[in-house]
């Protein structure tokens, strides 16, 4: 029996909270992967955000029997030729860029942020432009797919600021708002972020996609 439950293909509590609040108006019950312990982590072997998002969504949909939504997102820095890009979540593990020693207990998000700041230490303010980019994908167990992409332009700050958000939020500065993503409330961030824009673009196509799934056509 088809239900109104969808699964977000992530264990990241920050992403789950953000995406659940954006999808709530559709009356859907949203669950993260913590509700499906039998589903393994999906290795992100794609070379683009779109490839990774579709890989995660379609794999999780097949294993849970539910419609799955996944995103792949990251930060692109102009001075680094678009890096770290699709490798944003594991940037501190890459051989490229500055080599830093991290305490074993340091969270991965903080390691990534520190490495990016180190990579841009000598970069002047006028060349610190970049963007968050997000690709959202939805997939049904039948293999139907939906895809949407969006970006959020900004500047890489020289030091962390703010306690909200996750990932690179503390060093992503929005010139129009005059503060970092981590200094914004969830509501304000959802009005501007790459993920929120991508979700809205996805949801514009959602009614037909969901109707096709529900009616089995």
Task: Walk me through this protein's architecture.
With 217 residues, the protein is α/β, with parallel strands linked by helices. Helix content is 30%, strand content 21%. It contains 5 helices and 7 strands. The protein has helices at 13-23, 49-64, 108-119, 186-190, 194-215; strands at residues 5-8, 29-31, 67-77, 129-139, 145-156, 172-174, 179-180. Strands 2-1-3-4-5-6-7 form a 7-stranded mixed sheet. Helix 1 (13-23) crosses helix 5. It is globular and about 55 Å long. The model has no long low-confidence stretch (mean pLDDT 91).
Mean pLDDT: 91
- Rough outline: globular
Radius of gyration using CA atoms only: 18 Å
Spatial order of the strands in the main sheet?
Answer: 2-1-3-4-5-6-7
Helix-strand category = alpha/beta
* Count of alpha and pi helical runs: 5
Helix content: 25-40%
Strand element count: 7
Would you list the SSEs in sequence order as H and E?
A: EHEHEHEEEEHH
Unreliable stretches: none
Give the helix/strand layout:
Blueprint: E1 5-8, H1 13-23, E2 29-31, H2 49-64, E3 67-77, H3 108-119, E4 129-139, E5 145-156, E6 172-174, E7 179-180, H4 186-190, H5 194-215
Parallel strand pairs: 1-2, 1-3
Antiparallel strand pairs: 3-4, 4-5, 5-6, 6-7
In short:
By secondary structure, the protein is of the alpha/beta class. The chain has helices at 13-23, 49-64, 108-119, 186-190, 194-215; strands at 5-8, 29-31, 67-77, 129-139, 145-156, 172-174, 179-180.
């Amino acid at each position: 029996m088809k239900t109104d439950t969808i699964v977000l293909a992530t264990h990241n509590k920050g992403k789950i909270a953000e995406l659940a609040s954006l999808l709530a108006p559709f009356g859907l019950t949203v669950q993260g992967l913590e509700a499906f312990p039998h589903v393994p982590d999906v290795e992100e072997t794609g070379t683009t955000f779109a490839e990774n998002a579709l890989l995660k969504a379609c794999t999780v949909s097949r294993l849970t029997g539910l419609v799955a939504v996944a995103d792949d997102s990251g930060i692109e820095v102009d001075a680094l030729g678009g890096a770290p890009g699709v490798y944003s979540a594991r940037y501190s593990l890459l051989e490229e860029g500055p080599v830093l020693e991290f305490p074993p207990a340091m969270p991965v998000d903080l390691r990534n942020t520190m490495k990016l700041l180190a990579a841009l230490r000598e970069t002047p303010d006028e060349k610190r432009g970049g963007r968050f980019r997000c690709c959202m994908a939805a997939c049904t167990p039948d293999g139907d797919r939906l895809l949407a992409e969006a970006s959020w332009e900004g500047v890489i700050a020289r030091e962390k600021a703010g306690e909200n958000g996750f990932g690179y939020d503390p060093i992503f500065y929005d010139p129009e708002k005059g503060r970092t993503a981590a200094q914004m409330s969830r509501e304000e961030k959802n009005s501007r972020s790459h993920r929120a824009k991508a979700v809205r673009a996805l949801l514009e196509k959602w009614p037909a996609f969901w109707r096709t799934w529900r009616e089995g056509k």
